[in-house]
Automatic annotation (TrEMBL):
The lineage of its organism: Eukaryota, Fungi, Dikarya, Basidiomycota, Agaricomycotina. Its cofactor is heme. SUPFAM superfamilies: Cytochrome P450 (SSF48264). This is Cytochrome P450. InterPro entries: Cyt_P450, Cyt_P450_CS, Cyt_P450_E_grp-I, Cyt_P450_sf, Cytochrome_P450_monoxygenase. It comes from the Eukaryota. PANTHER family: BENZOATE-PARA-HYDROXYLASE, CYTOCHROME P450. Keywords: Heme, Iron, Membrane, Metal-binding, Monooxygenase, Oxidoreductase, Transmembrane, Transmembrane helix. The chain crosses the membrane at residues 12-30. Heme binds at residue 484. PROSITE patterns: CYTOCHROME_P450. One of its GO terms (molecular function) is iron ion binding.
Length: 541
């Protein structure tokens, strides 16, 4: 009796709930200010469409396909519109009073609640942090650090010389004289940024490894793979950042992908702690980035250095300044090697400067494996490298870099900004509080900007008539007030490294090699194995 009398009321309850659901959905649809913006059905209602593709590591491709299907304006989440018209970047990443702030997505990059220059959404805080670092990142300052960069490059070429001589540092998987250039560019970039930021290279090139010491709160030391930590952190942040209102609570979820991301942040901050402590204890004084940070915090806090803030910024320099450059260099080299005529042309241009080639040849016949750490050998190798003055204006070298950065932007998806006041673009009005972005991958392949050969790696487009105007469409270093502060450093480093390896080595790429990649916050190649030999010597692959 009891059972039969409750059944109808359960039915009724379900019926009412469905009714309420339908009414609420209709109401939401009718009042949705973005209901006319096209996009996937799921993205209209939930962030899961975007989260799914971010988790798969191909958000940039999924959004690109939407733009190909629906046009320049698409909705990629209930509160997020992606704009891919040629006009979009100047509006989404506007300067001055029209500038939009970073969206709460960036909270996923806080380090134990501390904001950095990169992650803060507070405009005033950002300006004060940026002011601190703008001087050491200026073109003049970075040029002043050239000798440090060249020394790291000197160590790098001595290591690669050994690979050419068949010494693979215990790598049993691959045969002689092949190298994963991504790995080695990473070691080089970590050494350079740590030298410039903390006064000493991390020694990755010498070790042939990205393992670094990290310091726990109790002072004990443990070791971690830095590059893997950065990758894991970016991949987790790219997903949990899409639900900023609950991001804080996702830490508690027992999902390995999420816990690994938070653990990576913790380990990276422990590595940065160790770097800062090491530098402070070393007594080195140099007007570098860390010195500026420490001074800045001192001024702000009237004499007390907030360790958390310095560590957070130090960690930012390590995580933003190394693999971005290594990933870009790898992609650029890949594109050059895919096109034999481009490869020949850029090497011919470099040969024309005749940068220390005689010296390179004189060291080529020496026994390679021994005496690696000899100061004389390092000095000879460093002296034999091209200087920035010699290569900085080579048009074709610079065009190969620019074209590689166009096709492979390490931040491929649209970097999200939040609408402060009314925002209108391409006929679509986006209300306050919603998010907008302009995807580098799509805009840097738009035939309206780049022509019908937009998908093709063609450095010539940068040196033809009108080539100089193309730069304004580039988003690889971001745009507007939050654009990359490390751009000067990245360019000088890429010019020096690329000129050095192309002058000193001959690379071969196995036929059919593809640049496989994955996307977290950053889009990065997975590996690039190349045959390598000193120029003018027999190849052993
Ligand atoms: C080829 C190499 C590089 C690329 C492609 C690159 C790209 C970018 C991009 C796209 C942004 C904007 C991020 C956003 O809006 O969310 C950015 C910001 C930033 N980058 Fe780079 N970057 C590179 C190298 C470097 C280097 C060498 C450093 C030196 C430490 C660096 C430090 C930073 C910092 C601190 C920010 C935050 C700036 C701010 O918010 O004011 N980057 N970078």
């Amino acid at each position: 009796m009891t059972v039969t009398s409750t059944l109808p009321s359960l039915d009724m309850l379900a019926f009412y709930l469905c009714g309420v659901g339908v009414v609420l959905s209709l109401w939401r649809w009718a009042t949705d200010p973005l209901r006319r913006v096209p996009g996937p059905f799921l993205a209209r209602w939930t962030p899961f469409w975007l989260m799914y593709h971010a988790r798969k590591g191909e958000r940039y491709l999924a959004v690109h396909e939407l733009h190909l299907k629906y046009g320049p304006v698409v909705r990629i989440a209930p509160w997020h519109v992606s704009f891919a018209s040629p006009e979009a970047p100047s509006k989404v990443y506007a300067q001055g009073s029209a500038a939009l702030d970073k969206s709460p997505f960036y909270r996923a990059f806080y380090v134990q609640g501390t904001e950095s220059l990169f992650s803060t959404q507070n405009r005033a805080l950002h300006s004060s942090k940026r002011r601190l670092l703008s001087q050491p990142f200026s073109y003049q300052s970075i040029r002043g650090f050239e000798s440090f960069m060249r020394e790291s490059l000197g160590r790098f070429v001595l290591r690669v010389d050994r690979i050419c001589a068949g010494d693979q540092f215990g790598d049993a998987v691959r045969p002689n004289s092949v190298m994963d250039v991504l790995l080695w560019f990473n070691y080089l970039a970590f050494d350079i940024i740590s030298d410039l930021a903390f006064g000493e290279p991390l020694g990755m090139v010498d070790k042939g490894s990205d393992i670094l010491p990290a310091e726990r709160k109790d002072g004990t030391i443990f070791e971690e793979h830095a590059a893997a930590l950065i990758d894991q952190r970016g991949r987790t942040a790219a997903v949990v950042g899409l639900v900023p209102s609950v991001e804080e609570y996702t830490k508690m979820l027992p999902i390995p992908f999420i816990t690994a991301g938070y653990k990576s942040t913790e380990s990276l901050s422990r590595i940065a702690t160790r770097c800062v402590k090491h530098r402070v204890e070393s007594g080195v004084t140099r007007d570098d980035m860390l010195e500026r940070l420490i001074e800045g915090v001192r001024e702000k806090e009237g004499g007390t250095v907030s360790q958390d803030e310095v560590v957070t910024e130090a960690m930012l320099l390590l995580t933003a300044g190394a693999d971005t450059t290594a990933n870009s260099l790898t992609a650029i080299l890949f594109y050059i090697l895919t096109n034999p005529s481009i490869y020949a042309k850029v090497v011919a241009e470099l040969d024309s400067i005749n940068a220390g080639l005689a010296e390179l040849d004189s060291t080529a016949s020496r026994p390679q494996a021994a005496r690696l750490n000899s100061a004389i050998e390092l000095e000879t190798a460093t002296d034999s490298l091209p200087t920035h003055e010699q290569i900085k204006s080579l048009p074709y070298l610079n065009a190969t870099i620019e074209e590689g950065l166009r096709l492979f932007a390490t931040n491929a998806f649209g970097l999200p900004r939040i609408v402060g006041e009314a925002f209108e673009l391409d006929g679509v009005a986006v209300p306050k509080g919603y998010e907008v972005s302009a995807p580098a991958y799509t805009i840097q392949r738009d035939p309206r900007i780049w022509g019908e050969d937009a998908e093709m790696y063609r450095p010539e487009r940068w040196i033809e008539d009108g080539g100089g105007m193309l730069k304004k469409h580039m988003l690889t270093f971001g745009s507007g007030p939050r654009a990359c502060i490390g751009k000067n450093l990245a360019y000088i480093q890429m010019q020096l490294a690329l000129a050095t390896v192309l002058l000193r080595y001959e690379f071969t790429m196995p036929p059919g090699t593809e640049l496989r990649s994955v996307e977290g916050f950053m889009h990065r190649p997975l590996e690039l194995w190349l045959g390598v030999k000193r120029r003018g010597q027999g190849l052993k692959v």
